Amino acid sequence: MPYRPRDIYRGRRKFRVPLTILLFTLAVLLAGGIGMFFFLQQYMVYDANGATLQLPFGREEQVDVPEGVDTPAPTFEPVDVQVVWVNPDFEDVDMGAWEKLKPTQGLFVAEASVRDAEALATSVSAAQGSGFSTVVLEMKDRTGQLVWPSNANTALGYRTMGNVDVTGTLESLHKAGLTVAAQISCFADNLLLQHNWSFGLRYADGELCRNEDGSYWLDPYDQTVRTYLTDLAVELADMGFDEIILADLYHPIAEGGFSYASPPAAGADPVSAVCQMGRRIVEALEGTDTIVSVRINADSLRNGSGELTGQDVGIFWRLFARLYCPTYAEALASDKELATEQMNGGDADARFVPVVGAVPEGSKSYLVG
């Protein structure tokens, strides 16, 4: 039997049309929002206070002009400008922190002993009773783990701070008439890279740069790295350290070269990269009672590899108060002679400090590690 259309039951559709309209409207709004988001990116301005949106219209500032004063239309003359990028010149740098230096006889206390209260107390007692004038505490080694509970932004953000309070040790050493120095590893840092690999220095093929002992190296041009190291030095100075010794302030060497996350416009230059970092820390501590020194590689001194490692001895003498150099008894005299040939002033016995395994004969300054 044939059927008629009116004999077929059809469900009610009273919600279908409004729902379709609603979904279509939401899709249009979503697409428009995404498009607007990407379109407005060109008008975002980022500065130290955050990000602001500056649209092309409404930017004109209204200036009140007194009555009766004509405001001529602005005229513009074409100007030929040539922008030239050059690396900073260090020839005129002389921080002058060496003028009143006296010879130093230092005892080096490694990071592991600084963390151990009993070992630290033993070292302090040894320094007070063995004719040392200075105690050098290693506050940051190549692992990147800080000894003290730092409040630096990067330390808090990446959890690199320690938990050892050394202020009591500093006070007791100062009361005993000793000076106290803090040594920190600069560009060698494993912990920071474990939290953020983008901070690492890379070879030309993109592989992370790693030292023979397994230490990873930070990118010397990375601004976060530079700010982090400067903040640590300032913090240690505020804690009462008399001297900051910068270790691992040098650039590795590789035949294939390196790639940088933020290379300078003038081209990468190891001397510029290393010395800029050192100068930034020294300038940050200007006006304080804390001097800044550096620990150099013997190879940079003996083999003239400063242009490759960035440790230009001539510039270092003008930047830093003292140069600490690992050496041994047979090479001590020649190393001192090489170093002082480029010294800009002061007493070589006070400014050149050999790092040795035992107290050397005939040397007024030394660091026993």
Topology:
Elements: H1 16-40, E1 44-47, E2 50-53, E3 105-109, H2 111-115, H3 117-129, E4 134-140, H4 153-158, H5 167-175, E5 179-185, H6 190-195, E6 202-203, H7 223-239, E7 243-247, E8 258-259, H8 270-284, E9 291-295, H9 298-302, H10 306-309, H11 313-319, E10 323-326, H12 332-340, H13 348-351, E11 352-356, E12 366-368
Parallel strand pairs: 3-4, 3-12, 4-5, 5-7, 7-9, 9-10, 10-11, 11-12
Antiparallel strand pairs: 1-2, 6-8
Keywords:
about 375 residues; alpha/beta; TIM Barrel; two-stranded antiparallel ribbon; 13 helices; 12 strands
Task: Describe what you observe in this structure.
The chain has 13 helices and 12 strands. The chain is of the alpha/beta class and 369 residues long. It has 2 domains: 14-46; 105-368, TIM Barrel. A hairpin with a 2-residue loop joins strand 1 (44-47) and strand 2 (50-53). Residues 45-50, 56-65 and 81-87 have low confidence and may be disordered.
Summarize the structure.
The chain has helices at 16-40, 111-115, 117-129, 153-158, 167-175, 190-195, 223-239, 270-284, 298-302, 306-309, 313-319, 332-340, 348-351; strands at residues 44-47, 50-53, 105-109, 134-140, 179-185, 202-203, 243-247, 258-259, 291-295, 323-326, 352-356, 366-368. By secondary structure, the chain is α/β, with parallel strands linked by helices.
